[in-house]
Specification:
The structure holds two protein chains of two kinds.
Chain A (H helix, E strand, L loop, with lengths): L1 H44 L3 H16 L2 H11 L9 H26 L3 H9 L4 H31 L11 H8 L5 H34 L6 H5 L6 H5 L6
Helix pairs in contact in A: 1-2, 1-4, 1-7, 2-4, 3-4, 4-6, 6-8, 7-8
Chain B lengths: L1 H4 L4 H43 L2 H15 L3 H11 L5 H26 L3 H9 L4 H31 L11 H12 L3 H31 L2
Classes of the chains: A mainly alpha, B mainly alpha.
Chain lengths: ~240, ~220
Amino acid sequence: MLENLQATAEAWPFLAQGLWVTIQLTVMGSALSLVLAVVLGLMAGASNKALAIPGRIIIEFFRGTSLVVQLFFIFFVLPQFGVELPGMVVGVLALGLNYGAYSAEVVRGSIASVPQGQWEATTALSMSPAHRMRRVIFPQAWALMIPSLASLMVHLLKGTAIVSVILLRDFTFYLDQLTRQTDTFWAYAAVGLVGYFLLALILTLFMNALEARAKHRLGRGPSLREVLSPTPTNKNSLSTAGGGI
Amino acid sequence: MENQRQLWNWDLAFEALPDILLAFLQVTLLVTVVSTLIAAALGLVWAMIIRLAPQPISGIVKWVVSFIRMTPIVVQLLFAYYTFLMFDSITIGIVVFGIHYSTYMSEVYRAGIDAVPQGQWEATTALSMSTRRTWTAVVIPQALRATVPALGNYAISMFKDTPFLLVIGVVEMVNAAQIFGGNNFRYVEAITLAGIIFLLASYPTSVLIRRLEKRLAYAY
């Protein structure tokens, strides 16, 4: 036990480096997937067939071919056509494209489930389609889609653990090195799984905060400050906490 | 190298196809099917324990399940592979996939059990059914009906996750494609074929599941 602790302390600079790579991949991959999700989700949900059909095809393509295939394709195949990308870019692209396609379905579904009356109201106010989406529909859909996006981001975080197969030195890569000085249980379970679990927990808490903020802006829940304060000041706002509509 | 400039080489594609198909049938499909069965059974066990067991046990199981769910399957595979040296890597893979996905499926079962209308529970009390009979004859049949499509979706997602097995050296479809690519210094055909097979197998299945979902939904 003590030896393991000591070995971990010695390996810590490397583990921290790997953890940083994992965090970067998660944050940049999530950012890319979010952008793609909004673009593809809006495309696939559009009434215009010229937008909807390509959107659908792209979504089904990246959802239907495994993450590892996409990773390998960008890493091994593109260089044969003269496109050579740094490992980090390959990782972010593959993660972003794969989870972006999954998230696009969430975006499309959430937009579709904004109540019909809201759409009709924007027509009554003769809003332009862009204005309607930006000011009325999307803010409401956003509050709906955050929980599903959060679970997809945890999936993305877990998906980053595969990038060592394209020679990226992430957290898992250095865990492998740690097993040479400590036993497997210590390296993979005590350090590795717990490390990833804590990252996932932080990500989940962050997304919960985003959800509280999105709901508060729609007037459907307490503000973030009220949620976080240990002594609730406003009883009225708390009574609506967690209540959807 | 004339070869490198070509977009697609049919000869190489036909050469790669048998390796890839064999790995698909022997490993990818086997792992998907057996792990899905394990996950579906174990998921129900977790859901029932969390729902029925007394406090400390159900609390612990809940934590363990969410811990497994929130940590990468890659690290779990590596951990099991180096810990249980007496088993071969395919067995390890099947068990780890089964356990990992059972944690997702337990959520599906939980939601399915919660969706059984309150009146059904009240009716079993009114008929003074035993707990055992309440579950086996009333709750589980209805809960299962609602959960079948979601379980199917997880089976597809497990199918697409099987390439993670390459971290413990299992030669599933993508690993076979990569090995073929490495031997021929050209990855285009092999990796593209692997992707196409994933698409051909998973897309029609997900369309079927969507239809099933609609049909089962009408039953209520």
